[in-house]
Amino acid sequence: MRRIPYGRQWIDEQDIKAVVEVLKSDWITQGPKIEEFERKIAEYVGTKYAVAFNSGTSALHASMFAAGVGEGDEVITTPLSFVATSNSILYVGAKPVFVDIDMETYCMDVRKIESAITERTRVILPVDLAGYPINMREIRKIADERGLIVVEDAAHALGAMRYGRMVGQEADMTMFSFHPVKHITTGEGGIVVTNNEEYYEKLKMFRTHGITKDEKMMTKNDGPWYYEMHYLGYNYRITDFQCALGLSQLGKLEKFIERRNEIARMYDEAFKDNPTITTPPKPPYENSRHAYHIYPILLDERLDRRQIFMKLRERGILCQVHYIPIHLQPYYRKRFKYDEGSFKNAEEYYRREITIPLYPRMSNDDVEYVIKNVKEVTI
After folding, report:
1. Residue 77's beta-bridge partner residues?
2. Which of 49, 83, 193, 206 is deepest in the core (most CB within 10 A)?
3. Interhelix angle for 253-271 vs 364-377, to 10°?
4. Residues of CATH 3.90.1150.10 domain(s) within the chain?
């Protein structure tokens, strides 16, 4: 039986060769490919700096640290994301303050941010869900007026654009993920891009135990072996061979995103007259581009989502659901006293959502097979 996952990496012989070359070299962990990868990502996005990490989660954790978030602070974010988004806030002792999504974008409702700000708010942490570039102009305006820092969780949005600008240019720090189902992969990995030199230096130190060998930062220098620990950091380092894979993948990124958008257009056309399915929103900004990390459809409330999910899986379409709202997770319910009804739009989205397959290596025949079966089970 045919098996079509909801997402999948595309590794070719060029990628394998790039990794093997590094494995045969003198550098395996911290070597020249890391700096090259960081430089190329920064160039692609259009920022001055980039710092690579061993996961998107550690990259978000580092961003919270670099932003100076700590005990007693609050960070405004969305309840509709993977738990890593809000967990990164908890890691530094701060409190996530959720703002419900709007049903036009599936992202945090920008219109509700102001009312969530308190004297303890330090950061706004929006998520570009599914690859939709959230309205950063409005978020940036609010943040600048209130003296807040913006950290964009763009794990889904590498290559997305708004107003002709790449996602990653407008936030103070932006995180991208390189998990295998994302746009490019390093196996596991993440990166933070920024134009702020202070954040850049803190990010670099945080991923390496808080240690520096930079003479400008050290209190003294006993010799070429000398280093100093200035912060309580972590071992969040990525490897040279992972970055070799990332560099090889980066050369194919535009082709990957073009194919993702092509598949999304096929789905849009196929389901546009289906009254039982709502297709994902498109960014309304001039010169914009959706990155389509995933393709979430919302089912009519009268349909049995579980039944449809299982029927698709029985037919080899390995659909998924993104995401269970964070505030409904047992840990968050217990700690913050959340309950059902706390964020109604996120919960409605969750009740109705199914993610159908979308990845660059899907053939048109695969896409048509998905379309055919989704139509059959939603009649």
Report:
1. 98, 125
2. 193
3. 30
4. 253-377
